[in-house]
Amino acid sequence: MQMFKIKDSIARFDNLLWMGIGVGVFYWIAESVLQVLVFQEGTVASQILTRDVHELWKRSLVLTLIIVFSFYVQLRINERKLKDNAFKEMENRYRMLFEEGLIPIFLFDETGRFIDCNHAGQVFFESSPEELVGRLIWDYAIKKYPNIDLVDYFSYPSKKSIEIDYCFNGKTRTLLLNLIPSHESRRKIIYGLGQDITERKVMERDISLAHTELNQIFQTASVGMRVVDKNFNVLKVNETFVSLSGESLKNAVGKKCYMVFSGDLCHSDNCPLQRIINGEQEIECEVDKHQKNGTIVHCLLSVRPFYGPNNEFKGIVESFKNINELKRIQEDLRSEHDKLRRILFHRLEGVGIVDADYTIEYLNESLKSKLGDCIGEKCYAAFRERLKPCEDCIMLNAFLSGKLERSEFNSSSGLIYEQTYTPFTESDGREKVVVTLRDVTEVKTAKAVTYRA
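^ thats the sequence. predicted structure below, dont judge the formating
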């Protein structure tokens, strides 16, 4: 590297080397003239072209020294010029970077006053350099920092960062300022590299709010929920799960899922985690889970995959809904249904159910034996052998009165039937009646005989 500098310097010699050569020639001529004038030794031409070894050696030495000295001086001058040019080029480069930088760049003194700033800094503070220079960095801040200078606050000469909120035209903007102290001996200068993080702060606040809301929803959900990673480790549970499982939060998190609130699917081919790993996207089933004290909890289990930010499979999210009460109600309903079926099945009278559109929905065995299997037919066709509803429909009267209605009619076979219509409303809001059909032929005949007697 030094050799290249020397070659470059030689290539850039200006006038000094030639001046040295000129001085050397002038010395040679002056020496010759002095020899003639002072010592009366021949002519000037003979002295200039002398062959005296002593004189030639003396003049050559002086001439060489003059040329070498001029060469050395010129070399130093050229090196200084190279350094000055390099320094100016570097200064221009860094000044351009400083001015054209996209991030705010500032220079502060040790008290926190602006010395200089680039264009991006002016745009951030919406001020000109004249308005900024000399003011404290804290003057624009929303939060005040009284009696604080940068040296004391940032433990000069360490590097530190600070977030400062500023208000411009009613809008808050946040500047992340990285402070880098210089090591100049004459004056302590602190460089400030700024970054406008207003949007990032807004995003952080939104993310924090969303996380808080999500966590609140997770914790206050009416179903027990837990997050399990793909290695069967419980990562998170909500308060409902803690209450449902009978485990404390400390014991529920960090353990294997099959060790906390285990069930009949654990260690089986139907393990929810294993099924999700094998490609299923949603699982919903009923399971029996065991609390710590041995109590069995009937649960409706819903399982879905849990993915990370990069859509990487992390585990599963399980939700447990306690259906103990639902199972009890279902058992009670099933029991009542069975009782009703037995009662209807063993009644001697015919019993059926007819909806408001005159359609028969149910017949017990007694009524089927009399009318045949006429479910789905119209009641007036099955009971009265008519093509249209009766003029004085007893069923409609039952709907209007909301009470039991009774009537008698003679069938085409000569038998006499007594009908009762009891209205009721289904769970879906539809109105229907329970119809009982009883053969009263013998009773009526006996009464008629008695009357005639």
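Residues 53-100 form the longest helix (48 residues).
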